[in-house]
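Worked Example 4.2. Consider the chain below.
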Amino acid sequence: MKKNFYFLFMKSTLSQSYEPNTISIYRLYEYYNSLYAIEKRFFQNSQCDHVFFTWYDSINGIESTQKSIQYEKSSILFNCAALFTQMAGICCDGKENK
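Applying the procedure from the previous section yields the following structure tokens:
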């Protein structure tokens, strides 16, 4: 039951976070803030060793599973930075401001 709840929570938050727009960044931050609250409540003193976070490498698709909620949070922030970079690239569209 716990695993299914986490899976559904993560999927509902991140399912539409791949497009470079402000809604995607908002959803990632929402997930980050939820993890922050959950960490303070449940992840003190290694109480949740049975929770795993899975990511897939963007280049070769290899699955990586971690127990660390800090790694999960840093991955979220990395994805936010990647979306900001994509948004900046779309916004500038190769034109230089002089």
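The mean pLDDT is 77. The longest strand covers residues 53-56. Compare this with Example 4.1 before moving on.
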